[in-house]
Amino acid sequence: MIFNPEYECMERDKMRELQSRRLVETVKTCYEKSPFYRKKMDEIGVKPEDIKSIDDIHKLPFTTKIDLRDEYPFGLQVVPQSEVVRIHASSGTTGKPVVATYTKHDLDVWSEGVARVMSAGGVTKDDIVQVSYGYGLFTGGLGAHDGALKIGATQLPTSSGNTKKQIMLMKDFGTTALCCTPSYAMHIAEAIESSHTLSLDDMKLKVGFFGAEPWSNGMRKTIEKRLRLKAIDIYGLTEISGPGVGGECECQDGIHIWEDFFYPEIINPETLQPVPEGEFGELVFTTLCKEAMPILRYRTRDLTRIRYEKCKCGRTAARIDRIFGRSDDMLIIRGVNVFPSQIETCLTEFPAFQPYYFITVDRINHEDSFEIKVELRPEFYVTPPEKQLVYVNPLYKRIVSVTGIKPSIKVVPPMTLERSEGKAKHVLDMRKYDD
Ligand code: DLL
Question: What is the SS3 assignment for 49?
Fold first, then answer.
């Protein structure tokens, strides 16, 4: 179902008019109320009057994660605290978290974004939506929660973790929609498979809304098969609101971005210039109706491409490809660019392997080492290692052909790679600790 056809299916000319109006307002507010943006715009000699339509967006300065950290906690907020009703933060790996604050209207916009994705995935008020994203400062839990509420579906706020109980409730309450990271979905599937008392036959799962980390199409197919549901990709980031900046529709052919709320651009991360439609680059967002913390041209570091043709579902909202990685996740090994998601894609092509992996990169005798720990599914696991070669050799060849470099593949015993309840960690780059 289309939650808000007026906006999701708006003619593109009308959408650009709407975006233009909203951008002009946003820029005016930023300049008048945010010392941070006023300074940034003054530095490059841009005044609000220079922004007359969405075509002028490229005149505006970029915002980066470093800017948000420097302005911690509330430097980018343009409304008085009395109008703020919620604060979220993304932990990041180092230093201060990135903070996002919301007015009541901001929460409405955010929950509508999630509701649009859930509706596209078939959720109605008759569904029971189990929210197994973490609740708390992370936007996943409350974001999915509020989206389900907007539709009038029943929310089951289990948060992440306590997997056995999650599954028991899933069965007893008749969960029809599951929201969690793809890693946790795999973990749940595996826990059901290894349970002696529970089976998918006892479950009513129809659809899952998975996101918050890069995942491959192969992983999607694996999850769909192992949880017997339709796996929908939901995308978002704290800086821009949270989950539901966009999501897939029933066609599962790209992530629709809710362009009436968030204006997407794809730029070349080196030249910072826009790339032509269909070319890969870094995704950049400008919020078009955010009140508490409007953001201009935020560099997400997420890598994808964009398409504007109308989707078969009838929506005109632009579509991005699934995010294949972040520019800061990219590993350069022996001079070659490698994305962790490429390894996941390869693994999911071989049914003997689990889609779990852990990459360790180091520098030994002036040369990069590239080790990938993988797991065979228990029914394929054999020892000694020579007996595993029948599985490992084809995987090795595939990884060499996809990445262009030779890894050392190490098969570890079943259930030894870490299972994640949230965003999975796939890489340890020891070279960072050299010198
Ligand atoms: O992860 C918001 C979210 C929660 C999205 C639940 C979807 C579902 P952050 O913690 O700020 O916010 O992390 C944002 O996660 O820039 C991407 O790199 C990555 N990411 C989010 N969704 C996807 C996705 C939430 N569907 C960062 N595919 C983003 C790939 C994703 N990467």
Answer: helix
Q: How far apart are CA 207 and CA 236, in angstroms?
A: 19
Residue 162 backbone class (left: φ over 0; alpha: ψ -120 to 50; beta: rest): left
How many angstroms is it from 242 CA to the middle of ligand 1? 8
Q: Residue 341 is encoded by which pair of tokens?
A: 């998601």
Rounded Cα–Cα distance for residues 355 and 352 (Å): 10
Q: Which CATH architecture has domain 1-327?
A: 3-Layer(aba) Sandwich (3.40)
Helices of type H across 273-384: 340-348
Flag whether pLDDT at 243 surpasses 80: yes
Distance CA 338, CA 248 (A): 26
Mind listing the pLDDT tens digit for each residue in 253-280? 999 999 999 999 999 999 999 999 999 9
CA distances from 421 to 34, 199, 213, 371 (A): 38, 20, 12, 24
48 CA to centre of ligand 1 in angstroms: 31
Residue to substitute in 138, 142, 302 for testing ligand 1 pocket (most ligand atoms within 8 angstroms of CB): 302
Neighbours of 402 (CB within 10 A): 15
pLDDT attached to residue 433: 64
- Going by their DSSP bridges, the two strands 427-429 and 353-364 should be labelled as parallel
Domain boundaries for CATH 3.30.300.30 within the chain: 331-433
Tell me the pLDDT tens digit for each residue of 179-237: 999 999 999 999 999 998 889 999 999 999 999 999 999 999 999 999 999 999 999 99
pTM score over 0.85: yes
Ligand 1 pocket, residue 329 CB under 6 Å: no
Could you tell me the fold of the domain covering 331-433? GMP Synthetase; Chain A, domain 3 (3.30.300)
Q: Where in the chain is the domain with CATH 3.40.50.12780?
A: 1-327
Q: Are 205 and 85 in contact (CB under 8 A)?
A: no
Burial class (CB in 10 A: 0-12, 13-18, 19+), 335: exposed
| SS percent in the chain: helix, strand, coil, step 5 | 35, 25, 40
Alpha carbon nearest to ligand 1 atom 12, residue: 237
